[in-house]
Each structure stands twice: as structure tokens, then as C-alpha cells.
Amino acid sequence: MNTDRILRTRTSRLLLALPAAVIAFSLAACSAPARPSVDDLSSGIQKIAGDAGTGDVFTDAIADCMAKELLDSKISDGDLDNIAAGKDAVSKDGQDLIEKELGDAVTKCASAE
Question: Is the model's pLDDT at 19 over the cut of 50?
Fold first, then answer.
């Protein structure tokens, strides 16, 4: 049995598998961010409201309700991440959708309180 040939075959297989593993890992690293949690989104809503001077209007219950409504909407993960981080910056494409969803959420959640 030629051990040199067996070693080269195993090495070749390993080297052929390496690029596939690297590609799979890089694609996973570039995947879209996951939607934030209700708690994170609620905190971000309260921070944005506080920065705007309306923080006393948004109780924990209202902010949690709004967070749930926004998570169930078609707002992008990236825009939700920005809101969860307390940033008032959203994508240009999502601005109209966010304004509509926020309006609906405020109406629903404020009346439920």
C-alpha cells in the first residue's frame, strides 16, 4: 500500500473542503441581523421619546405594546435595530412604513392602557 498516495488524497480532500467551509462561514457572517427583542425595542422607543421630550407619555406598558406591534410589522430588521438602539435614523425606503406602523401602534396601544 502506498501511504504517500493515501496521505495526498486525504490532504487534497481537506483542501477542497476548506473553501466551501470558508464560503459558508462568510455567508453566515453577512446574513441580515435578527429582529431585536421586545425589551430592546421597548427601551429604544422610550429613549427616542425621552430625547424628543415626550418620555413621560410612553409608559412601560405602552412602549412594550408598541414594540410588539412593530415586531409584527413589515419594518426591516435593520430599521428595528436602529430603533432598538435609540437611534431616530431609519432607511429612506422604510420611512413611510415606519410612520404608518408607529401611528397605528400608538393608537392601538394608547387606547388599551
Answer: no
Cell 430625547, residue? 51
What number is the average pLDDT over the span 34-61? 89
pTM comes to 0.67
Rounded Cα distance, 83 and 78, in Å:
9
State whether 101 and 85 are in the same domain.
yes
Q: Do 77 and 100 belong together in one domain?
A: yes
Measured distance CA(109)–CA(55) in Å, rounded? 15
Alpha-carbon separation of residue 66 from 1, 43, 102 (angstroms): 70, 11, 7
State pLDDT tens for residues 72-107: 999 999 899 999 999 877 777 788 898 899 889 988
Work out how many domains the chain is built from and give that number.
2
Domain limits at 76? 38-112
In a shared domain, residues 7 and 42: no
Instruction: Give how far the C-alpha of residue 58 lies from the chain's centroid of Cα atoms, to the nearest Å.
Output: 22
Q: Are residues 27 and 45 in the same domain?
A: no
CA 52 to mean position of chain CA atoms: 23
